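Renewal narrative, Specific Aim 1. Our central claim is that a sequence can be written position by position from structural information alone. The example that follows is taken directly from our test logs and has not been curated for this report. It begins with the C-alpha cells describing the chain, in the order in which they were read.
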C-alpha cells in the first residue's frame, strides 16, 4: 500500500486580478490534481473548478487498487469534466469557449497513474534528480519535437502559451496516461505554467532538494515565480511518498 503526504499552494501572481487555477491535495485518497483555466471574464476559474470538483467526486471512494482500474477512472474523470464544461458553456453564453488544463496523480497499490492534458506539468523528484513526467500539449513543444526550436527558444517564444489540447474545448478529448512504480522518498510536483514559465527546472530542483519542509518548499516555489515577475497565476501541489509496499 502507498501512503503519501501532500500540500498545495496557489497565488494570483503579480499581474492578474483573479486566480483561474484550482488544485486538489487529498493524501487520504492518494490523490493530487491541478487545473489552469482559460476563457473570458471568470470563465477560466469556472472550468478549472469543474475539473477539480469532478476529480473529488469520482475519486471520493479512494484510489482503485490496480493500475488498469486507475487508468480507466482517470480517463473517465477527464472525459466527464470535459462533458460538464462543454454543457455549461453551451447553456451560458458568457462561458463560451472556456476550458482548462488538467493534471492528476492517483496512487494505487502498485504505483502511480498520471493523467495529463494541456501545458501544466507534473515532475518527479527522485534520488536528487528532477524529471518532467508529462509533455506539454503546446505549439512550442511541437516545434521543439520537430527540431525547429530549442528548449531555450521555446521558453521565450511569443506563442509559448498557445496550447493544442485542453479540457472543454472539443467534444472529444485525448488524455495522456502515464504509469510507473512509486518509491519512498519520491516527491511529485504538479504545477501550472505560472511556475514553469518563470522558474528554471534547475532552480525547481534546487528547492526540492533542500532541507525545507514540504510546505516551505511549496511556498518558496510560489514566491520564486512571483519574484521573477509573476506574469500568471502560480499553483503548485507537492506529494511525498512515505510508504510503498
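The sequence written for that structure reads:
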Amino acid at each position: 500500500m502507498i501512503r503519501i503526504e501532500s500540500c498545495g499552494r496557489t497565488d494570483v501572481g503579480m499581474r492578474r486580478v483573479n486566480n483561474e487555477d484550482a488544485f486538489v491535495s487529498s493524501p487520504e485518497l492518494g490523490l493530487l490534481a491541478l487545473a489552469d483555466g482559460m476563457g473570458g471574464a471568470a470563465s477560466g476559474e469556472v472550468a478549472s473548478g469543474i475539473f477539480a470538483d469532478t476529480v473529488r467526486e469520482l475519486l471520493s471512494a479512494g484510489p482503485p487498487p490496480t493500475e488498469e482500474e486507475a487508468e480507466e477512472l482517470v480517463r473517465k474523470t477527464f472525459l466527464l469534466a470535459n462533458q460538464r464544461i462543454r454543457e455549461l458553456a453551451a447553456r451560458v453564453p458568457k462561458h463560451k469557449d472556456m476550458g482548462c488544463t488538467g493534471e492528476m496523480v492517483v496512487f494505487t497499490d502498485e504505483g502511480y497513474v498520471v493523467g495529463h492534458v494541456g501545458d501544466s506539468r507534473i515532475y518527479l523528484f527522485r534520488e536528487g534528480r528532477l524529471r518532467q513526467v508529462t509533455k506539454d500539449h503546446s505549439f512550442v513543444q511541437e516545434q521543439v519535437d520537430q527540431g525547429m526550436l530549442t528548449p531555450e527558444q521555446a521558453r521565450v517564444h511569443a506563442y509559448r502559451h498557445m496550447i493544442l489540447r485542453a479540457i472543454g474545448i472539443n467534444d472529444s478529448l485525448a488524455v495522456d496516461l502515464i504509469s510507473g512504480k512509486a518509491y519512498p522518498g519520491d516527491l511529485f510536483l504538479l504545477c501550472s505554467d505560472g511556475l514553469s514559465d518563470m522558474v528554471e527546472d534547475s532552480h525547481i530542483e534546487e528547492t526540492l532538494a533542500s532541507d525545507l519542509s514540504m510546505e516551505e518548499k511549496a511556498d518558496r516555489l510560489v514566491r520564486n515565480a512571483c519574484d521573477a515577475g509573476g506574469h500568471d497565476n502560480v499553483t503548485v501541489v507537492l506529494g511525498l511518498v512515505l510508504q510503498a509496499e
